[in-house]
Task: inverse folding
């Protein structure tokens, strides 16, 4: 990995240090410049959990990726910059069935800075855009779990610890006026290869959300923009607009204009 090349890819300015301020800036820069996308799955380009190939895709070919690629690559950058960071697995909540997916369905990061630990995630779409401070040691054996809150540009979030093994992250729904589950995670450290089976499932199974629809989504300074195979959606300062996508040519025009992903970058591996 060429650290400066990665920093240039995410348009990070300055000299990062292994501290909270740099972590906040690096996370935001990554989310603003590297999209969450599953396009390779629909373009029949196989995704392997290989650090060098992921780096080439994201940094040198100006692409995005899904959680295993984005958080896996970001972890390597943070390690090179001197951060104490580990991969963790998470179970994603499915609101339609009110169930959780298997333990490695999602990948996130834990970053330790002195006595504090932070949840960091650049691979979950419309989620946190800043490190979420958690208290690893706290656990209530009574009826009330320890709670912590995190408010930022992307919304309000709550963290609880319902048992001895998992933390639950919820996001506040303004319409329903209630916190709704996003995912639960364990603090057990994992390796990139531990997500291999889940990565295969996400690419091959008809039950995977990633095989059902193309998506490319990017945080912006005023909200978020997202393209699917049927529409282009922009949320800006609380105002949502939608543009239908008539055909594949229109899709590729918007993909290049809004996300800087060209046809030439589609199948390079």
Result:
């Amino acid at each position: 990995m060429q650290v400066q090349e990665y920093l240039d890819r995410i348009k990070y300015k300055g000299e990062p240090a292994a501290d909270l301020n740099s972590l906040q800036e690096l996370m935001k820069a990554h989310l603003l410049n590297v999209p969450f996308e599953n396009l390779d799955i629909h373009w029949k380009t196989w995704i392997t959990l290989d650090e060098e190939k992921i780096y080439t895709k994201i940094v040198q070919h100006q692409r995005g990726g899904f959680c295993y690629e984005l958080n896996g690559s970001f972890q390597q950058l943070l390690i090179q910059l001197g951060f104490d960071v580990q991969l963790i697995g998470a179970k994603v909540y499915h609101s339609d069935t009110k169930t959780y997916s298997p333990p490695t369905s999602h990948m996130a990061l834990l970053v330790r800075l002195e006595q504090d630990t932070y949840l960091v995630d650049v691979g979950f779409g419309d989620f946190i855009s800043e490190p979420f401070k958690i208290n690893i040691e706290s656990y209530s054996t009574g009826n009330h779990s320890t709670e912590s809150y995190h408010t930022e540009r992307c919304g309000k979030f709550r963290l609880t610890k319902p048992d001895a093994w998992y933390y639950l992250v919820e996001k506040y729904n303004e319409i329903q006026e209630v916190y709704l589950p996003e995912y639960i995670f364990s603090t057990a450290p994992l390796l990139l290869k531990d997500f291999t089976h889940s990565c295969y499932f996400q690419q091959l199974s008809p039950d995977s959300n990633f095989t059902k629809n193309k998506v490319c989504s990017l945080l912006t300074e005023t909200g978020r923009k997202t393209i699917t195979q049927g529409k282009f959606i922009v949320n800006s300062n609380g105002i949502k607009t939608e543009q239908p996508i008539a055909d594949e040519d229109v899709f590729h025009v918007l993909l290049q204009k809004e996300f800087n992903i060209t046809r030439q970058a589609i199948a390079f591996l």
Summary: The chain is about 25% helix and 30% strand. The domain at 3-265 is CATH 3.30.2140.20 (Arylamine N-acetyltransferase fold). Confidence is low (pLDDT under 50) at residues 138-145.
